[in-house]
Specification:
The chain is of the alpha+beta class. Helices cover 24% and strands 22% of the residues. The chain has one domain: Peptide methionine sulfoxide reductase (Metal Binding Protein, Guanine Nucleotide Exchange Factor, Chain A). It is globular, with a radius of gyration of 15 Å. The strands form two sheets. It has a six-stranded antiparallel sheet with strand order 3-4-8-7-6-5. Bound molecules: zinc ion (ZN). It is an enzyme of class 1 (oxidoreductase).
Length: 181
């Protein structure tokens, strides 16, 4: 089994985990954040800036909630059971920072690893870049938003047979938008 959880447990056993990996968010904070996600505009719109590459780290910090900033700009990891883990409404998932379309509910499934899982991204990584990640002593492939460089999560090769891949994504990196009728 190569689930996220097993990989993290194995990292703990090797005592090479950095504090950010297990930074926790209070339940109250997480619920508040889930509610806010449905109503809020993505950060780029709130900043009133068109080109995500023009946004400074300080501006991201000012407009993103601390938990979102930690995951998206500092490559942190949210605790398991985030607000989109067991969420299966029909719609699309866009980058919480810049609004780039990342995933569709059609490829979302419950993997049991504790984070939202997708078998593929929109248009074969149209808005996603893959980066080799050797942090914590693990060989993983990190996925980031191609438009604004937000850390999203990782992609593993133990997904459903249809693609063989499992995108393991932090809930706080995304904003869900329901399909219009
Ligand atoms: Zn983005």
């Amino acid at each position: 089994m190569l689930s996220c959880l097993n990989r993290i447990v194995s990292a703990v056993q090797r005592r090479i985990v950095e504090p950010n990996l297990f930074r926790t968010i209070s339940t109250t904070g997480r619920n508040r954040m889930a509610a806010n996600h449905e109503a809020d505009e993505v950060a780029l719109k709130r900043l009133g800036i068109k080109d995500p590459k023009q946004v400074t780290e300080q501006q991201w910090k000012e407009v993103l909630q601390p938990e979102v900033y930690n995951v998206t700009r500092e490559a942190g990891t949210e605790p398991t059971g985030g607000h989109y883990d067991k969420f299966f409404s029909k719609g699309r998932y866009v980058c919480i920072c810049c609004g780039a379309e990342l995933f569709s509910s059609e490829s979302k499934y419950w993997s049991g690893c504790g984070w939202p899982a997708f078998s593929k991204s929109v248009d074969e990584d149209f808005n996603i870049i893959r980066i080799r990640d050797n942090a914590y002593g693990m060989e993983r492939t990190e996925v980031r938003c191609k438009q604004c460089n937000a850390h999203l999560g990782h992609v593993f090769d133990d997904g459903p047979v249809e693609t063989g891949e499992r995108y393991c994504i932090n809930s706080v990196s995304m904003k869900f938008e329901p399909f219009s009728e």
